[in-house]
């Protein structure tokens, strides 16, 4: 979504994120861990006529045959990002509504941060006025990287520098996200630099791997899942939140309604379509007054409209789930393309149905793996440790005089 703003240093880093690099890392004796996104699972499931669970089990077989040590699931780390986002929203809401100074009034709207296409656009095009509104919570991709390289490595008795962590994503911009300096850390002062995510493969590149090895994917055996970081229940089914781009607006809305206004919302939220199917809003009324107003805003045209309103101080929303791609992440540029004779619209409909096929809807706050991560490592949502490992910051990119002159 944002390929127009790649620097030459980023180009060099991106060239390293290839199938060849991934395969050679296994041969170099690194402990390779792969984290698969639920959108990629859905894309492969539609392509091969399987369920997301079957795809996940067959991918586990494929990767382990190649020598991969573990195969994880980013819907698990997404639950952690959702919990941190809920707490950040409540903090911002109270700051905005319970204090009188003008600066605190700028705590809202809060804007989701999981889409690197949007972040890249905001940093390189919109400038510093928009960045304070963007949630400081890392994306599910970076969160799972931080969990693996800071915590899981200790459980597995592997040094973080000996792990090569690959994600499978619906999106090329996730490669750009993985090479940000903000997602590199050092364990010791003079130690090696550790990257949370060493390489990103798109769903399409994974399909290329299947084809290049002449693997009959649908006939592969189904291996047991690595349950350390996967939303897979004992009964053998997958669980997670609804929402093909992460369900940020929905989960934060329900949490805020309960925490701030004592309203438990049962059943689906009533999202109203505004202008087009990629712009929807949901409201909560208490005593005839609208107290919460959130929006989903997908695609560049919609996000540019909403950004104009924020700049003019006329945005009526308290939370915005912004995604650069029309229809969100299921429709990412790295997904498998429609088959001959299939329209893009038909494919996205199939993906939306497939995404939650036999996946049980579950509250992130009840995720036993995430509860364990807080108990063993992060203490509690919003803690100092959570801020250190699960949050980040954004940087306005000031264009050099030369590039401004070139544009001019
Ligand atoms: Fe990537 Fe598109 Fe999803 Fe943004 S909306 S994270 S650009 S797939």
Describe the structure.
With 408 residues, this protein is an alpha/beta fold. It folds into two domains: 8-77 and 139-241 and 365-390, Rossmann fold (3-Layer(aba) Sandwich), CATH 3.40.50; 80-137 and 243-339, Fe-only Hydrogenase (Larger Subunit), Chain L, domain 3, CATH 3.40.950.10. The chain has 15 helices and 13 strands. The protein has helices at residues 8-15, 19-27, 38-48, 52-66, 74-98, 116-126, 140-155, 173-178, 203-212, 248-261, 300-311, 344-355, 368-378, 384-390, 401-407; strands at 31-36, 70-73, 110-111, 163-169, 184-186, 193-195, 199-202, 238-240, 272-274, 276-286, 289-298, 319-323, 359-361. Strands 3-12-11-10-9 form a five-stranded mixed sheet, sandwiched between helices. The chain has a four-stranded parallel sheet with strand order 2-1-4-7, sandwiched between helices. A hairpin with a 6-residue loop joins β5 and β6. α3 crosses α4, α3 packs across α12 and α5 (74-98) packs across α10 (248-261). The protein is globular. The relative contact order is 0.18. Residues 404-408 have low confidence and may be disordered. The structure holds iron/sulfur cluster. Iron/sulfur cluster (SF4) is lined by residues 1, 115-117, 170-171, 173, 323-325, 328-329, 332.
Task: Lay out the secondary structure.
Layout: H1 8-15, H2 19-27, E1 31-36, H3 38-48, H4 52-66, E2 70-73, H5 74-98, E3 110-111, H6 116-126, H7 140-155, E4 163-169, H8 173-178, E5 184-186, E6 193-195, E7 199-202, H9 203-212, E8 238-240, H10 248-261, E9 272-274, E10 276-286, E11 289-298, H11 300-311, E12 319-323, H12 344-355, E13 359-361, H13 368-378, H14 384-390, H15 401-407
Helix pairs in contact: 3-4, 3-12, 5-7, 5-10
Bound molecules: iron/sulfur cluster.
């Amino acid at each position: 979504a944002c390929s127009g703003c790649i620097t030459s240093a980023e180009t060099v880093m991106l060239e390293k994120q290839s199938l060849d690099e991934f395969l050679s890392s296994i041969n170099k004796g690194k402990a390779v861990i792969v984290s698969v996104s639920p959108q990629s699972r859905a894309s492969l499931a539609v392509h091969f006529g399987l369920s997301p669970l079957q795809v996940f089990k067959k991918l586990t077989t494929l990767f382990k045959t190649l020598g991969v040590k573990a195969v994880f699931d980013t819907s698990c780390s997404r639950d952690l990002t959702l919990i941190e986002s809920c707490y950040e929203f409540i903090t911002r809401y109270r700051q905005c509504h319970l204090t009188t100074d003008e600066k605190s009034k700028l705590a809202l709207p809060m804007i989701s941060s999981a889409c690197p296409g949007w972040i890249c656009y905001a940093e390189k095009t919109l400038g510093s006025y928009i960045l304070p509104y963007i949630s400081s919570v890392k994306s599910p991709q970076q969160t799972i990287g931080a969990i693996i390289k800071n915590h899981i490595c200790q459980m597995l008795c592997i040094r973080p520098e000996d792990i090569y962590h690959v994600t499978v994503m619906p999106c090329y911009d996730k490669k750009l996200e993985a090479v940000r300096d903000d997602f590199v850390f050092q364990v010791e002062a003079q130690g090696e630099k550790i990257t949370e995510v060493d390489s990103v493969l798109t769903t399409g590149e994974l399909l290329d791997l299947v084809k290049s090895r002449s693997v009959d994917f649908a006939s592969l055996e189904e291996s047991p899942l690595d349950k350390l970081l996967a939303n897979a229940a004992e009964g053998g089914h997958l669980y997670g939140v609804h929402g093909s781009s992460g369900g940020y607006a929905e989960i934060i809305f329900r949490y805020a309604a309960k925490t701030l206004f004592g309203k438990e919302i049962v059943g689906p939220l009533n999202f109203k379509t505004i202008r087009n199917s990629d712009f929807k809003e949901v409201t909560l009324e208490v005593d005839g007054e609208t107290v919460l107003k959130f929006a989903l805003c997908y695609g560049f045209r919609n996000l540019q409209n909403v950004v104009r309103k924020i700049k003019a101080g006329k945005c009526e929303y308290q939370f915005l789930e912004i995604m650069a791609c029309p229809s969100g992440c299921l429709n990412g540029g790295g997904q498998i393309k429609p088959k001959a004779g299939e329209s893009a619209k038909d494919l996205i409909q199939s993906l939306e149905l497939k995404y939650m096929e036999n996946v049980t809807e579950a509250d992130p706050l009840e995720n036993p793996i995430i509860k364990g991560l807080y108990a063993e490592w992060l203490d509690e949502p919003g803690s100092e440790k959570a801020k250190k490992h699960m949050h980040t910051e954004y940087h306005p990119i000031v264009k050099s005089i030369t590039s401004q002159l070139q544009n001019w």
